[in-house]
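Module 6 notes. Inverse folding takes a fixed backbone as the condition and produces residue identities as the prediction. Think of it as a translation problem where the source language is geometry and the target language is the twenty amino acids. Below is one complete input and output pair. Work through it position by position during the lab.
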């Protein structure tokens, strides 16, 4: 509720009181009620007039303030455009590089964590001498088995080389005999 409406409300209430209870005090209550209502309405109109006048002065001041703010808004807009251009030219490419660097660092951290885990898992076994001794025994056993297999293969190889030499000699003798038999078979074919 606004302050300008208070006189109207007070005038209305007083008019009602005069209208219903005014017979006791005064003789013509309707006229007095109308006079009180008119006075309250007139007072309210005067208050509204001054209030509108004060508001119009405030509106004028606001217009003046906004007129002085307009160049500052233009300056802020220009600065915003400059900052946006700098961000697109300088900051965004740097963000891409930082993202790539971050990915590289993440890979390095993952590799480091893997190496640490691997070291922890193997260090448990490295401290146990029984594991070393059994590993060395296993290596000697495998080495002995491989050496015996190597000897067997060398023996097989020498047997195959001897067989190969023997077959080469047989082939050479066969080749020496073959031209004589070919010429006879060719002669037989011509005689027919």
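Target side of the pair, the amino acids:
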């Amino acid at each position: 509720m606004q302050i300008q409406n208070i006189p109207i409300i007070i005038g209305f209430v007083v008019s009602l009181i005069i209208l219903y209870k005014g017979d006791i005090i005064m003789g013509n209550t309707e006229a007095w009620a109308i006079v009180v209502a008119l006075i309250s309405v007139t007072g309210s109109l005067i208050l509204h007039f001054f209030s509108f006048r004060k508001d119009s002065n405030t509106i004028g001041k606001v217009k003046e303030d906004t007129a002085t703010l307009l160049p500052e808004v233009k300056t802020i807009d220009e600065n915003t455009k400059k900052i946006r251009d700098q961000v697109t030219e300088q900051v965004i490419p740097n963000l891409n590089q930082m993202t790539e660097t971050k990915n590289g660092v993440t890979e390095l951290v993952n590799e480091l964590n893997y190496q640490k885990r691997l070291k922890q898992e193997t260090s448990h076994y490295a401290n146990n001498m029984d594991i070393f001794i059994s590993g060395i025994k296993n290596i000697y056993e495998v080495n002995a088995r491989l050496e015996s297999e190597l000897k067997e293969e060398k023996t097989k190889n020498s047997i195959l080389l001897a067989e190969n030499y023997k077959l080469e000699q047989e082939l050479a003798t066969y080749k020496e005999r073959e031209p004589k038999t070919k010429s006879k078979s060719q002669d037989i074919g011509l005689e027919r």
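Reference fact for the lab report: The longest helix spans residues 29-126.
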